[in-house]
Amino acid sequence: MEDANVSIRDVRCGLDGTMFLTDTGALLACGSNANNKLGLNNRQGFLMQMKNLLNKDPVKVTTTPTAVKALSRYRVVDMALGPTHSAVLVEPGHVHTFGSNQDGQLGSGNTKPRDAPASVKQLEDQTVTVVLKKLF
């Protein structure tokens, strides 16, 4: 972790990964990033997507808590970590999902893979207050 003054407010553990929520609403993750389920490979925005196309070495495993940079512009308030995907609640109550979408588990209305955390569009007119706090 880059800033030793940051306090960890919450922790979620999955089968082979862990997510840490800081007191400032930043999300950190470590462990297996298979299917980008920790959100560590990609950042949002056109320029970052172009940079990611050239990245030949996606993050597969990280052994130290690493910032989920794709969510850095949001204040994360809750998260859930499953075996192949994750869901994150950001202020003001929107859900972002990432990881495997083989069975439509990201809530995108299809089974196409996502290359970065993305808002669940069908819930954007709702205010979500919590995501499931146990293994999917």
From TrEMBL:
Its cofactor is Mg(2+). Residues 99-121 are annotated as: Disordered. It comes from the Eukaryota. Its EC number is 2.7.11.1. PROSITE patterns: RCC1_3. GO terms for cellular component: cytoplasm. Residues 99-111 have a biased composition (Polar residues). It is an enzyme of class 2 (transferase). The keyword Nucleus does not apply. It is found in: Cytoplasm. PANTHER family: PROTEIN CBG16200, PROTEIN KINASE DOMAIN-CONTAINING PROTEIN. Belongs to the protein kinase superfamily. NEK Ser/Thr protein kinase family. NIMA subfamily. This is non-specific serine/threonine protein kinase. It comes from Nematostella vectensis.
